[in-house]
Amino acid sequence: AGADTVKRAVELDAASRFQEALVCYQEGIGLLLQALRATKDEVKKHHYRQKISEYMTRAEDIKKHIEKEKQDSKYHKQIRIEDNATGFGYERLFQEYLTEIVSEVWVEDPYIRQLYNFLRFCEMLVKGPCRVKTIHLLTSCDEGSGKSQQISGLEEIQQSLRNYGVTLDIAFSSSIHDREIRFNNGWMIKIGRGLDYFKKPQGRFSIGYCDFDLRPCHETTVDIFHTKHTKKM
């Protein structure tokens, strides 16, 4: 298993998929350490030690490379969320990029219908460590029977945010299609399903209803860029 994992790491490394390669190197090193402890064959022990040292050195090099790219804002990270996966609450996706200088956030999503999800996102912004003062929401208006409920719900969130010194600017567009979230420190996050990538809980008292880290997800892809290195259309 360890050999297969590091083999995959080397393949990802060669393809410049460094973030994924780092994860595989770390998992592979752990498996090789287990094999090293389990064997009594000195020849095998020497081989394992040599490979572990080699892969640890490469993993450290990749870590430094990723950190430098982040500091230089030349960073693209992709996260693939599998169907029914858990552990992908908003904090996991966004917290790393919500630095203290973030004061303004733009959310463009044509289908903000599960307002509790948007509220949870706003709660994360209020908690910090960022100091958000303005949230711009651009979405489409529900043309069906849910229109009044959508508007009243957003207005309630707007009023609640005002109590925390945060302005929610709401705008509607009938032509919006893309989904993206931007912070004024330059980071941009694109989620295939927007903020509504969580599945509905089984009930009001089921695990995952309140803690989104425990909520199963729909399959989707998350791409993270820095606007300094994206072309304007």
From TrEMBL:
SMART domains: MIT
Pfam families: MIT, MIT_C
Domain MIT positions: 1-71
Entry-linked SUPFAM superfamilies: MIT domain
Entry-linked InterPro entries: MIT_dom, MIT_dom_sf, MIT_domain_contain_protein1, MITD1_C, MITD1_C_sf, MITD1_N
Origin: domain of life: Eukaryota
UniProt protein name: MITD1 protein
Protein species of origin: Centropus bengalensis (lesser coucal)
Upper lineage: Eukaryota, Metazoa, Chordata, Craniata, Vertebrata
Gene this chain is encoded by: Mitd1
